[in-house]
Amino acid sequence: MKFIIGGACQGKREYVSSHYGISHAEMTDGAALSPDLFSHQTCVYHYHLFIKEQLRRGQNLDGILQMTEELLRQNSDIIILMNEVGSGIIPIEKSEREWRETVGRVGCWLAERAERVERIVCGYGVRIK
Amino acid sequence: MTILITGGSKSGKSHIAETIVTASGLPCVYLATMMPFGEEAHAAIARHRAMREGKGFVTLEQYTDIGTLDLPKGSAVLLECMGNLCANEMFSAHTPRPVQKILTDVKTLSRRCDLLVIVTNQVGEDGVLYAPETMRYIKNLGEINWGIAQEAEMVIETVFGIPVMMKGEKPPCLY
Q1: Does B175 fall in a domain?
Q2: Across chain A, which distance is largest between two alpha carbons, in Å?
Q3: Is the ipTM of this complex over 0.85?
Q4: Are strands B154-159 and B162-167 parallel, antiparallel or unpaired?
Q5: Which superfamily does A2-127 belong to?
Q6: Where are the beta strands (DSSP E) in A12-67?
Q7: Which of A9, A84, A87 to mutate to test the interface with B (most CBs of B within 10 A)?
Q8: Phi first, then psi: what are they for B102, rounded to 5°?
Q9: Once rounded to an integer, what is the mean pLDDT over residues A9-18?
Q10: What is the DSSP letter of A36?
Q11: pLDDT, tens digit, for every residue of A37-88?
């Protein structure tokens, strides 16, 4: 698994497309991903929105980590793209705080298991793992 | 030696900080700056306590005025975190010049221990325009981080658990 991260709109999908030869058609929006669609995923972007949707459906961190483990089990070569969302002021809304913290923890979990982690800034990637 | 560790929410700052402090072999002091109010603060404190358990930390709580602390000689101090300390100085103690005050206090504290590891926060990257008081907080914390980083031997940004060196060489304990 490769883990591609960075702030919003830094060109993560373009980077994956040009560096790993994956067309946009092969990329799945995390906001529309669900466990029944886990098989044959090449690349999932907006994984932070997958997390948001799962939290909205009542999942917790452990449940989301289990789902993520299953996604990796079915697609060991998957590329996951996720935004960094934790570097602002603590949100007033409790659900927003939970989402931000869950994205942080799931991100640590993914980074630990990734064969490489690349951080995209202005379309350029820096390999940090 | 002073080491500054920054990063987003739940990005592994504490884990990296604890690794560095415990690897020093010095007596470890945990300097907690978070006021224990509210359910989430208690949960965070409990979680961090569990993380430190068995690592030999002496815990001190000091919400403002960290320059007045008495420390065991030759200790390694983990200050967590600057985001809370800055908020406490600004909004609880109403310190007139919090940036200068905190930077002076940090200098005093760093002279009283052998290793000072400071955990801070990145709070200025969400692009939201907040009320003036919050904008002042973002500015102050940014200036504090900048001031500490200039004096520090090492500055580390944690990114999803990965230590990214901004200043200095990666210490052996992080490999």
Answers
A1: no
A2: 41
A3: yes
A4: antiparallel
A5: P-loop containing nucleotide triphosphate hydrolases (3.40.50.300)
A6: 27-29, 43-45
A7: A87
A8: -65, -40
A9: 96
A10: G
A11: 999 999 999 999 999 999 999 999 999 999 999 999 999 999 999 999 999 9
